[in-house]
Protein 1
Amino acid sequence: MSNKAGVLRPFVRTIVRTATEGRQMATAASARFEFRLRPEVKSRIERAAELVNETTSDFARTATEERAERVLHEHESATVVPADFFDELLRALDAPARPNPALQAAARRARSAVEGR
């Protein structure tokens, strides 16, 4: 591809249409994404899409949706706590166990139940 000056441009324009409601493809996809690819990347995507019998657009859209879901899931499933809370938690986990009275009573009840059999 070249412009008016005859200079080759090393990119390929690809348009990916996405549905605004996740995977509900019953409604027409109207949101639009556009990005540039190196020609060799476009060729790999086209080859991969052909192997799974999908259009390049469907293949790229599906791959993008799946990656977005993974990233969002990883981000949303992470618990963020202040550093001093985390340090205190690690110290508590590293400290020797000290049973409290309720735990000692529960252990006695469990021991007598097992010995009473």
Note: The CA atoms of residues 44 and 50 lie 10 Å apart.
Protein 2
Amino acid sequence: MNPPSPPPTPLPPSPAHPILILIWDMCVITRAGSLHVSESFLLGIASDWGIGWTNGTGLDRTAFANPEDAERHGGVQFCRIDLYVERCMRAHRNDMENIFPFLFLGAIYSMTGPSYAVARLHFLVFFLGRVVHSIAYLLALKAPTRSFAYVIAQVPCVSMAIQILMEVASFA
């Protein structure tokens, strides 16, 4: 009589193919990035057209920074500085200064193979922080609101940078 054979050992779960993980991560960062770029694009349009969101005046601000634009839309008398348009331009510039580094960090971070839920949390916190920051900038809310939103939006960036550095250090 033959001795009983040992039970088969279960195979460890096979990880997903690295290319599939990379494609999935790129989809997540692309979606997050497109939300940020869309928000900043709207701020750029608001500053270019002089849209008055706070008082609902729409395109009737008729303030142009360049004389050639002013002449095309009514005359040189409209070549003036509008404080709200300047505020929109500063908000747009601030978004550009923060969104592009986020997109770079997010793309590299996605390639390190983070947990999907954690990556989404990073992207969501950054997005919500930037939206609150932009709204606080446009509506001229009191100072702590804008600063707090900025810090909240930078926490995921710092976290992603640290995790990227830890991943790179593990190969050294």
Note: The chain has one domain: 18-169.
Protein 3
Amino acid sequence: MREPKKTKSRIWLGSYPTAEMAARAHDVAALAFRGKLACLNFADSAWRLPVPASMDAMDIRRAAAEAAEGFRPVEFGGVSRSSSDEKERMMVQVEEKKKRVV
């Protein structure tokens, strides 16, 4: 996504396995840069998107990735929204991986 008022500056939002995930990442960056004037892919669910901590490229990238992951389909490793047991199991796995890294 091109940064406003910077002619050749862009923020890389990442690569995603689905178009919807990429579109959600784009929406986060568009809202950060243009606010209410942003042209969004999913305007009806903008309230569900994370807000970057600052206008720093890293914060925007982080919030965009978080938004995209929130819409990862089950077939691409996402968690079914209807199964709280599955969601809890995935959270435990993430925590275990973090402990192994430290």
Note: The chain has one domain: 19-101.
